[in-house]
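Handout, section B. The chain below has 331 residues.
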Amino acid sequence: MSGSISKWLLAAITFGLLTASVHARPAIVYSVGGKYDGSFNESAFTGVKRFQEETGVSVKEFELERDAQSLQALRSFAGRGDEPVVAIGFNQANALAQVAPEFPDTNFAIIDMVVDQPNVRSYVFKEHEGAYIAGLLAAMASKSGTIGFVGGMDIPIIQRFLCGYKQGARAANPDIEVLSNMTGTTPMAFADPVRGAELAAAQIGRGADVIIQAAGGTGIGVLQAAADKGILGIGTDSNQNGLHPGQVLTSIRKRVDTAVYDSFTAAEAGTFEPGLKVLGLAEGGMDWVLDANNADLITGLMKTAAETAVAGISDGTVTVHDVVMDGACPF
């Protein structure tokens, strides 16, 4: 009898392992705000779609409603044998730091934060470099001499973006006034478009005629308020030029999509390596968008100035202040 039980258990375990292997797939855990936030998460989703279309391999997905769900979501995917498991957003760093050691044979990746574990690939971006281009173009487009910035959660990444924006603006116009507000002090600051619209409206009331959003889903409200008031917005993370054609000066893309796609394809090819990847203008991790939706807004002089700045930042002849590495913003 015991022999029959042992054989049954062995068969069940074997079947379970085979089933896990068959169904193991790449997985992604989006940050709060949903994968259709029109910004940060949606850029990640673009990478997912590209991978699926090119490989035919489906990807398991989970959308956080609150940060507390991250730990269980990451653990659940890893426990089923899925990999790589990609976490979107700095707010998942603590959860991933707990889960990664529990599954040492599973590959993980995180976007926008560093998790120092031997099975984690961390992607961070030089937001200040892309923001410099935004500030340069905003100052050149402004007629009032006042431009605005609405950030999401008040964290170093957003402060880095703000400082780069100020530096780029001052490079174009040393007398430019830059208004700035942060939406909040929790991750939900990236998912409050109503508050974003209110902050943008207040800056418009103080004379801002170009406003950038660095606020995830909150930024959708910023761009809507700008369009409603007849001024220019600037998008971030995804290409948001098409949200309000002719009213979005440009979009500063953080290529989260590229990082996600890179993680999945590397794992598929068996070349996934943990460690830190830092992506700026030179590495294709940040860029600015010129397309049919904003072509009439970007003059030849502005285009040349932006391209010159990109080249200078990429080859090191132009240094953009990084508040994370270099200390407080001097602008």
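Note. The longest strand covers residues 146-153. Compare this with the example in section A.
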